[in-house]
């Protein structure tokens, strides 16, 4: 028969080994009175500098005087969809810099040709969605022409609801499908 040690003895030995202060930096030791320290930030108190974590300086925010967002050639290849609100063909200001970059590219490359495909979500009749897709494509075309693209460089077409990006029946899918896509048919 083997002798067993009392469970309390094993527990005390284990806790003693784990609580050895030689592996814990002195700043983290529990006080002799046994009271636990709580980080002052958790109590809503100011945190002394020695307990603050170093912060990485953020890049300075761009100011309006520094100009508009710049889009390089790679941006022209990735920023090709313009998204619209429900039942709307109005271009949101967020898409203006990308569309103006496309217009600058077209103006400096007269042999380039693009097609704007207007799309709509599945809500509404097929005829209504086709007309709405055409309005969206025409809105994008008008902005491009106004920003310097040539009239013969930009063609439009409506796909209505026939080519959804997402096929779900929820707001996320519908928002993804309310768009106009810029497709380069011929690049210089």
Report the major sheet: 4 strands, mixed
- The total count of strands amounts to 4
Q: What string, H for helix and E for strand, traces the elements in order?
A: HHEHEHEHE
How many alpha or pi helices? 5
Instruction: Give the terminus-to-terminus CA distance.
Output: 90 Å
CATH superfamily of the domain at 69-186: OmpA-like domain
> Which residues form runs of ≥5 with pLDDT under 50?
55-70
The second-level CATH architecture of the domain at 69-186 is: 2-Layer Sandwich
Shape, please?
elongated
Explain how this protein is built.
- The protein has a domain at 69-186: OmpA-like domain (60s Ribosomal Protein L30, Chain: A, 2-Layer Sandwich), CATH 3.30.1330.60.
- Helix 3 (96-108) packs across helix 4 (126-146).
- Strands 1-4-2-3 form a four-stranded mixed sheet.
- The chain has five helices and four strands.
- With 188 residues, the protein is an alpha+beta fold.
- The N and C termini lie far apart (90 Å).
Précis, in short:
With 188 residues, the protein is α+β, with helices and mostly antiparallel strands.
List keywords for this structure.
5 helices, 4-stranded mixed beta sheet, 60s Ribosomal Protein L30, Chain: A, 13% strand, 31% helix
